[in-house]
Design goal:
The complex is a heterodimer. Chain A has a single domain, classed as Porin. Chain A has an 18-stranded antiparallel beta barrel. By secondary structure, chain A is mainly beta. Chain A is 12% helix and 52% strand. In chain A, strand 9 and strand 10 form a beta hairpin. Chain B is mostly beta strands. Chain B has a 13-stranded antiparallel beta sheet. The chains are: A mainly beta, B mainly beta.
Chain lengths: 426, 235
């Protein structure tokens, strides 16, 4: 495996700090030696009502064998999250687990994170295992999230599964001048098991690098992703407070050798292309204590309106008639090449949050919209969070989609959805 | 005329020296502290949070939520007028505005993560009483949460007793009262309770209760985005 010189330089720079340990001049008092094991977690119980769109191809593909007799469906599940943190001096271990239970026959357990960490010096951290990375300044979308889990813009703060990897991070602060601190993070991502699910090819090891700066009161990150198999990417992000109630942020990325999948003449077509994606965002706090988050996201590799139209017509062709082989083929293409909730190029995200309106104590409503610019379809949702007692939350969360049958949101399997959550923390 | 200008200038200088003394009497420059924040609602119910706070120098402060469990692991970092919130479920620091409240109640982030007053404000003397100095403070820049402050200071020990915070238009936003003097050890003796109320939140009251304050030095790297998820390691 051959990597460019700049990667070699960065690896050597990072290792130097590890080998030489604590930086000169850092004479701070170390923490007392104590062993700490802390448990935490929460139980989410979720009841969801759906009004399905029986005419949509996505609905037909979701229930290929036996369709429900009514468009009104319900779903009941619970999701326990259990986390543990162990720390002694410079060593640590973190574990985050998640399970989903529908029934005894339909249940699963995931390890979101499990990694060990070691601090050879105060500013240096080595970690190995499975860990979540969350790169980027955007709230709903992160075009520079090269190693992030796939984000759900409908719930960006939801815990997600991490990446099997090892990393070294070095942080340095400066007590004066325009540059207040900087950091360097190198992530090595071993090849996932492609042979027998246990062995991967060495040459398919990926590398990701992020350098961060707090410069002139502005967060600036530069990042890169190097792979032989996957698209290579470089990018940057930026965030800054413009005043005491306005924050602005942005992300920009260039990707090379991205395989785009489209449908032409009712067949899957793969093309390799390069391009620039970006995000522009704003967080504004009004004097009424209402927070607005506004973001515009351009995904160069998303589908155009005509491409999305061809894609939904392809789905429709597979669901007409009763050809199980054709339906299986279409479902396979749908699930393999067009996964994700936002497939098109341009989106506007707006979210308004107003804690305790009309003196309704412990009640925080928010409303957000994800608008697909090219086809003018949208998803509108309102999350109402009520915390009457410490460590207990109730959430009422209605959602609706709107748009023509061949649009991003109009083609969803449901028309309306209402979720009711109860969350108990410990 | 010259004499008058010099006198005014000397008075402002003395006011800023007094403000620095007030800061020094309130907190050591670098410390760790455990605090409880109690928000009292108009119906008498209470919400309580416990924080671990670390501060270094004039412009670095970080805070970790210890209780309740639903907030545990959240952290806030302030470097000058830059402020971030770390959400443990998302594993991500988000840049926030200094006026935003992350705990509800009358306190906002700038109150909970207060830096030295002398870092953010220019002081001038106003007419006090026999027992208290009165300073009028003007924000040094527009990113400071409150444009103007009035500050009452006990003359005997130069201890802060009351602060009124005003908007640029002159509207009273909130009042902070400093009570319950306590010896925390290590030469730190100061009010242990800050009570806050506001005409904008009628019937609400917030109390900040200092349980412990201890001088401690930290590496600068503690006050970085990278360290926000690890603040608990310092305890």
């Amino acid at each position: 495996m051959r990597h460019p010189r700049w990667f070699v330089f960065v690896v050597i720079s990072a290792l130097r700090s590890v080998l030489f340990g604590q930086e000169e001049g850092a004479s701070e008092v170390p923490a007392e030696e104590t062993k700490k094991l802390e448990w935490s977690g929460n139980l989410d119980v979720k009841y969801t009502l759906f009004h399905m769109d029986e005419s949509s191809a996505a609905y037909v593909l979701q229930f290929p064998m036996s369709r429900p007799s009514s468009p009104f469906l319900s779903q009941y599940r619970f999701e326990p999250y259990l986390n543990a943190e162990y720390r002694v001096r410079d060593l640590g271990f973190s574990l985050s687990t998640h399970a989903t239970y529908f029934s005894d026959a339909e249940a699963s357990v995931d390890i979101f994170e499990a990694y060990g960490s070691f601090n050879p010096s105060f500013g240096t951290t080595l970690q190995a295992g499975k860990r979540v990375y969350n790169w980027g300044k955007g709230y709903a979308f992160n075009p520079v999230g090269f190693v992030n889990p796939v984000k759900d813009p409908e719930n960006p703060e939801l815990a997600q599964a991490g990446l099997l990897s090892a990393n070294v991070e070095y942080v340095k602060s400066f007590s004066s001048g325009a540059l207040q601190n900087m950091s360097l993070l190198l992530v090595v991502i071993p090849s996932s098991g492609s042979t027998d699910n246990r062995f991967g090819e060495l040459k398919h090891t990926d590398l990701a690098l992020k350098t961060s700066f707090l410069l002139w009161d502005t967060d600036i990150d530069f990042m890169g992703f190097y792979s032989i198999q996957k698209p290579r990417r470089v990018g940057m992000d930026i965030a800054r407070n413009m005043s005491e109630n306005v924050e602005v942020h942005g992300e920009l990325t260039y990707s090379a050798n991205v395989t785009r999948f489209t449908i032409a003449n009712n067949s899957l077509v793969a093309t390799t292309t390069n391009g620039v994606s970006y995000l522009l965002g704003l967080r504004y706090l009004h004097e009424s204590n209402t927070t607005l988050i506004a973001e515009y996201f351009h995904n160069e590799f998303g589908l155009s309106a005509s491409e999305f139209d061809a894609y939904t017509r392809f789905l429709g062709s597979g669901t007409q008639g009763n050809d199980p082989i054709l339906m299986q083929h279409v479902a396979s293409v749908h699930q393999t090449y067009f996964r994700g909730s936002n497939l098109m190029k341009d989106f506007v995200y707006l979210k308004l949050t107003k804690p305790e309106p009309f003196d309704w104590l412990y009640f925080t409503p928010s409303v957000f919209i994800i608008y697909s610019v090219a086809d003018r379809s949208f998803l509108l949702s309102a999350a109402m969070i009520y915390k009457p007692v410490t460590n207990v939350e109730f959430i009422l969360w209605p959602t609706l989609v709107s748009g023509g049958e061949n649009t991003e949101y109009g083609s969803k399997a449901f028309r309306q959805r209402v979720e009711v959550w109860m969350r108990v923390f410990f | 005329m010259m004499f008058l200008v010099l006198a005014v200038s000397a008075s402002a200088q003395n006011a800023n020296i007094l403000l620095k003394d007030v800061d020094e009497n309130l907190m050591p420059e670098s410390y760790e502290a455990n605090r409880r924040l109690i928000n009292e609602e108009p119906d008498g119910s209470k919400k309580e949070f416990t924080f671990y706070t670390v501060k270094k120098g004039r412009d670095k402060i970080a805070m970790l939520y210890l209780l309740p469990a639903s907030e545990k692991g959240r952290a806030t970092l302030r470097l000058g007028e830059n402020m971030w919130l770390y959400v443990p479920s998302a594993k991500k620091p988000i840049r926030i505005t200094s006026l935003q409240s992350v705990v509800g109640g009358v306190f906002n982030n700038a109150d909970i993560m207060q830096l030295e007053y002398s870092t953010e404000y220019e002081a001038t003397y106003a007419e006090g009483t026999d027992k208290e100095y009165l300073l009028e403070l003007k924000a040094k820049n527009k990113t400071v949460a409150y444009d103007k402050l009035k500050m009452w200071i006990a003359k005997d020990r130069k201890i802060l007793r009351k602060v009124e915070a005003y908007s640029a238009s002159g509207m009273l936003i909130k009042t902070l009262e400093f009570k319950g003097d306590k010896n925390f050890g290590g030469g730190i003796s100061r009010p242990s309770v800050i009570e806050t109320y506001s005409p904008l939140y009628k019937g609400y009251r917030s109390l900040m209760v200092y349980q412990s304050i201890k001088k401690r030095q930290f590496p600068d790297e503690v006050f970085t985005l990278n360290y926000m998820g690890r603040l608990g390691d310092l305890r």
